[in-house]
């Protein structure tokens, strides 16, 4: 008897041409720390009362897939997932870096969750990245969580063919910079920030219809980009931005230790909506919540950059 072990599991994906349909071809391996992808079904009960106080009818209803993929961010491994989250594709026309901005075109995948030690493989079709959450703090890798919403799921004893994996080093908090300034003006690197967390949420929901137990499409809402900055209380820089309702620009760059790959997360126009600086016995900190707004010059609330692919 063999019980499946997490250490012998793997995750891979293939981009779908048609939503919900798995195309032919090799899957791409996806490095991850943990994942909670799973399929669910609603339960539909009969409502008849028959005098015996008992339920006589139950059926399975609408089904969907959902879950989080948590990973140490690294160059190249998650570029397709970022495209899905941003509803856009990488623009390789700039001279120095490729750029990705918020768009309106959905990209879906089929994911395969492989329990390799027991030969069981679960497919999650029509999977779209609903959200990305990035956490940057001392003494940790740059952690990224991809929230997935999908159409359907199935299980098989035969796995997909997986392509070769190119090993790259994960990003850490020591190999990057954080710059802030007035929106539309020059940004200055800041050495007091202890952590930055930010999230993009697409508000995806399955569009269920009569005649099908799985959704023929996934509905989306506005892309909401929010974040939190924690900094040592050195001066009034962040507090004044909150009090004066001063729109700011923010750029966060991360890279691997050898700087072979550097990614930038640029928020060209943010509004600081809080700046708490309480006293708790240790160093005083300023904690700020911010929301990213559309910038007409950049044409986006969030821009992601990577090294030029050409």
List the keywords.
46% strand; 310 residues; globular; mainly beta; two-stranded antiparallel ribbon; 18-stranded antiparallel sheet
Percent of sequence in beta strands: over 45%
Using the alpha-carbon principal axes, give the shape.
Answer: globular
Quote the average pLDDT: 93
Major beta sheet summary: 18 strands, antiparallel
Low-confidence stretches: none
* Helix count, DSSP H or I runs of 4 or more residues: 2
- Give the total of domains: 1
Distance between the termini: 51 Å
| Helix and strand pattern | EEEEEHEEEEEEEEEEEHEEEE
Rg, rounded, reads 22 Å
The amount of helix comes to: under 10%
Structure description:
The protein is mainly beta and 310 residues long. The protein has one domain (6-307). Helix content is 5%, strand content 46%. It contains two helices and 20 strands. The radius of gyration is 22 Å and the shape is globular. The model has no long low-confidence stretch (mean pLDDT 93).
Quick overview:
The chain is mainly β. It has two helices and 20 strands. The relative contact order is 0.18.
How would the blueprint of this fold be written?
Elements: E1 9-15, E2 28-29, E3 34-35, E4 38-45, E5 58-72, H1 79-86, E6 97-101, E7 109-115, E8 120-136, E9 143-150, E10 152-156, E11 172-182, E12 188-189, E13 193-201, E14 205-206, E15 218-219, E16 224-232, H2 237-243, E17 248-255, E18 262-272, E19 285-292, E20 303-307
Antiparallel strand pairs: 1-2, 1-7, 3-5, 4-5, 5-9, 6-20, 7-8, 8-9, 8-10, 8-13, 11-12, 11-17, 13-16, 14-15, 16-19, 17-18, 18-19, 18-20
